[in-house]
Structure formats: C-alpha cells, structure tokens
Write a structure and sequence with these properties.
This protein is of the alpha+beta class. The chain is about 35% helix and about 25% strand. It contains 10 helices and 17 strands. Strand 1 and strand 2 form a beta hairpin. Helix 9 packs across helix 10.
C-alpha cells in the first residue's frame, strides 16, 4: 500500500516539527511524530512526501485571469494581484493552480527567499517532497459554517465559498475582528453585520488558553461549536489531501524532480517478479530447444541407418532429402503399396492351388517382386506363371535348378506393362 508522509515545515525560528504517515484514503497509518527534519527523513525514505507550509507566509488568491496557460498565464498573475501585494513582485514567487467554478484561478504567493529556504532545509535533511501546500489550503470548507483553526497566535479562517486566509494577532477578540468574523463596535451605524455560524478547530492546550476569551464572545456568533484536535491538526488536514483546490508550490524553478528511487521502491516487487517469470520462461524455452535439437540428432541417426539398410548402394549425403526424393518417385510411379499388396494376393491365390510349391525368399524393388521358389516340377512353375498372368501380372522364370525333391527356381513378378530396366 502506497503511503504518504504529511510533513509540516518548521515555523520561523523553530527547528522541530510534526509529521504523520497516511494511506491512500488520508487515514493515519501510524502515530503523529515530532522532531527535526533529519528524523523525518528516515520515514520519508519509504513514502511520498507532502510538505505543509505555514499559512502566515503564503497568500492565497483567486484572481480572474485572461485565457491562456504556461508562462504567459504566470506573467499575468502579478498584475492581477497588484492591489493585494505589499512587496516588490520581483521578490515574490507565484504558483498557479486550477480555474475554479467561481471564474477565478487559484494562485499561491510566497517570498522567493522563503521558498528557497524551505527547499534548502528539506534537501539538507535528505527530503525531496512531491508537493508543498500552504497548510490552510487543506482547511475543509463547510457550506453552512465559518471554519476557524486556531494554533498558538495564528487564526486561519475559511468562509463558505471563499478562500482561506490567516491572521497572526492576539488577543482572540482582536484577531476575530481583523478577520471580519465579528463586527467592529466602532463601525458607522447602518445595516448590522450578520452573525456567523462558527466552528472552531483547536488542540487541547490552545483551547485551555483561549476558552475564556471565546466564551466572552459567544453572543457575537449566530452559533458556536468547538472541535478539539486530540491528535493535532495533521490527521484532520490529511482528509483534504485529495481535494483539487490546493495549489502545489513546486512549480517553475522549484518543480519537484522525478523521484525515480521512490518509483523503483513502489514497483520493485512487481518488476522483480516479472524478471523472475521472464527468466523461467527463457530457461524453459532453452531446455525445449535443447531437447528438440537432441531429438533431431537422434532422428538423423535413425534415418541414416534406415537409409543405409534400404539403399546400400547409394552414397550417404543428406539422408532426409534422399529418402524423401525416393519416396516421391515411388508415389509418382502409380505403383505404390497397393501394387505390392495386389501382387502378394495374386501369388497367394496361385500358390494355394499348388500345395507343394513354396516361396523360400522374397524381395520387392522398383515394382518387381523377386522370389526364390521350390516346386515339385517345371510344370508346377509353368502353372504358377499362368495363374499369375491371368490376373494381369507378368511372371517370368529367370532360372531353375533340378533337385532331389523337385526344382529350385528364381521368378520375377511385375505388372504386365512393366519392363525390367536394362
């Protein structure tokens, strides 16, 4: 499961901060931890890092920009925000987000010097973040309530349908007044300010410190609720990681470099399994090829042996080709196995009528059957020749030798139209 390290950048003047591991749904995957960035780097080695910048150092805006994208759009941002900026635009860094349903474009503004300081501190600790957001950008929007987040002397505010902003003023009454959450008693009489429904998110220590101040201001709200953050703000902010409104500050010269190490860690198990399967497949194919080559060599040896036995007079060059060529000639001769069977059937019928005549040896070659016979007389051989001739075959007595029991003869049987080659 892919994990994300949600890391708060240390506020100015502090060396330690908080971090939390969360899963893909934004749920905590472990306890909140506290320490230096160097300690957080040990956890960051196995997770994607998202850093949260202090809200008081980032301005969030939503100017209406002309159509366009890329460098052209970024160049138009300073002029669109000119009335809201108090610093020289050359000293500011502008990160551009998505166009909103309200017609504006989300923009985050931060000092170039501050941005470089954050990047330097993170890299010095060995941390390469995938994104940096203003922490108040993850402040959830409530359609019916003004959301307040109080942390020490900082008050972050988000009204329904509006961008979050932060003020760093004490006491609480003055901070609420500056933020416009409560009405200013010194305002010119007229239409009174509508009271707001307020929900306050605060940790236990800060709530004990400001509880009396808020209790004294209850009548200035239409309703007032308190939500204690027992584990700090990180688990609460992590729920909004999937929102599309937050602007990633890592753009332009600060764009995050591709974290090939993290990608490799994420995919290395699947990659190693794929390599293992490929190796198994290659080895299996190599074994099959080796077995096939061995079997092919064995078949070549057997073919050579059969060739030498069947055609002892021919020179052995390519037994496969030579055997195939001979078989092709036999098939084209129109006298294949069916002729041999027919001839044997005819001989069997003729010999059945001559009980004292028998075949001592027989060979078949080039449509000719050569036989060595034993017969009681020359007359018996003539009868055999005549019987075979009636079946469309030709039987010729090549030689005969008288014996004590009859005659030994050599006879050839072939088709009547076949002539022995000279």
């Amino acid at each position: 499961m892919a994990l994300t390290l949600l890391l708060r950048l240390p506020p100015p003047g502090q060396a330690e901060t908080d971090w939390l591991l969360v899963d893909e749904t934004g749920a905590a995957a472990g306890p909140r931890q506290h320490g230096t960035l160097q300690l957080a780097a040990a956890v960051a080695a196995s997770a994607r890092v998202i850093a949260l910048a202090p809200a008081t150092q980032v301005l969030l805006a939503e100017p209406v920009l002309p159509p366009g994208s890329g460098v052209k759009l970024v160049r138009a941002v300073p002029f669109a925000l000119e009335e809201q900026l108090t610093e020289d635009i050359d000293q500011l860094y502008f990160a551009v987000g998505r166009r909103t349903a309200r017609g504006g474009t989300s923009v985050a503004v931060v000092s170039v010097e501050v941005m470089r300081s954050w990047i330097a501190d993170l890299r010095a600790a060995g941390i390469d973040p995938a994104a940096i957001y203003a922490d108040m950008a993850l402040l959830p929007e409530n359609p019916s309530q003004t959301v307040l987040w109080l942390e020490q002397d900082r008050l972050a505010v988000r009204r329904p349908g509006a961008l979050p902003f932060a003020v760093e003023i004490t006491p609480v009454a003055e901070a609420l007044l500056v933020a416009g959450v409560t009405a200013d008693p010194g305002d010119v009489p007229g239409e009174p300010k509508a009271l707001e429904n307020v929900i306050l998110y605060v940790n236990q220590d800060d709530w004990r410190r400001v509880e009396r101040e808020f209790n004294a201001l209850v009548e200035k709200f239409a309703s007032f609720k308190v939500q204690l953050l027992a584990d700090g703000p990180l688990p609460w902010l992590a729920r909004e990681l999937g929102s599309k409104g937050a602007v990633n500050l890592l753009q332009g010269e600060f764009a995050a470099e591709a974290d090939y190490g993290a990608r490799w860690r994420r995919w290395r198990v699947a990659a190693l399994l794929a390599v293992g399967l490929l190796c198994v497949h290659v080895v299996a194919q190599a074994l099959q090829i080796r077995q096939a080559n061995r079997r092919s060599a064995e078949l070549d040896t057997e073919i050579a042996q059969v060739f030498s036995s069947a055609m002892p007079t021919e020179r052995l060059e390519d037994p496969r080709r030579q055997m195939q060529s001979r078989l092709d000639r036999i098939r084209k001769s129109a006298a294949g196995p069916q002729y041999f069977l027919r001839a044997m059937q005819t001989l069997g019928g003729a010999l059945a009528q001559l009980p004292k005549t028998s075949i001592e040896a027989l060979s078949y070659r080039e449509q000719t059957i050569d036989m060595k016979l034993t017969a009681p007389s020359i007359d018996a051989l003539s009868q055999l020749s005549q019987a075979v001739g009636k079946q469309g075959l030709s039987a010729e007595i090549q030689s005969s030798t008288p014996t004590a029991g009859g005659v030994d003869a050599h006879m050839q049987v072939r088709l009547a139209t076949t002539r022995k080659k000279p």
